[in-house]
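re: ur msg from earlier - yeah i can do the AR6 complex, just paste it... oh wait u already did. ok heres what im feeding in:
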Amino acid sequence: MTRLTVNGRVLELVQGDITRFRADAIANAANSMLAGGGGVDGAIHDAGGPEIMEECRRIGGCPTGQAVVTGAGRLPARYVIHAVGPVWFGGAHGEAELLRSAYRRVLELASERGCRTLALPSISTGAYGYPVDQAAPIALGAVAEHLRGPTSLERVTFVLFTRETLESYVRALQALAGAGGGERR
Ligand code: AR6
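and the outut:
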């Protein structure tokens, strides 16, 4: 299963490159210096062009568990929301709460700007080492919770780069739906 309806809004999973995904906002898995790097961050800055980094430099940084907004340069989006997820240190260092907080902040910022569509990557599960099977339920739970409340968002899409990541999110979505997290498939 790759799609769940929550409160009439859509939470969906696709495999792909988030830089090619058309949405009002896309999230980035950034670092607290907003300094750019590899993974999805590198791909977003490469595809979006230098304007995004200029704005990141002006903002200066972002604490772990938080997010900041810039324009999207050449990307087919209006905003990039740079979220800073936690580095995995074994799970006993507040990683889950920081990851949940990073997603919540992205969702709040997108809604504050009136976005109807949002694309998300799997924050922290690449270079930052967060086990994807543990990150996926947190990521999906944060989105489902947000969609149950007042929001401008109508569709939130996880754009997952690898098949393994998608499969992990599919399992977590099945568990969420089974636990009554949505209305229908
Ligand atoms: N589209 C969607 N997902 C992608 C893409 C893409 N184009 N490229 C990679 N991913 P990571 P983190 C997936 O490492 O763990 C950077 O250097 C990737 O397969 O990008 O939060 C930053 O500057 C994985 O599932 O982010 C930070 O320093 C997911 O994106 C640090 O890495 C996240 O992997 C952040 O590490």
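cool cool. The pocket of AR6 is lined by residues 17-19, 29-31, 36-41, 43, 85, 121-128, 159, 161-162, 165 (CB under 6 Å). ping me if u need the other ligands too
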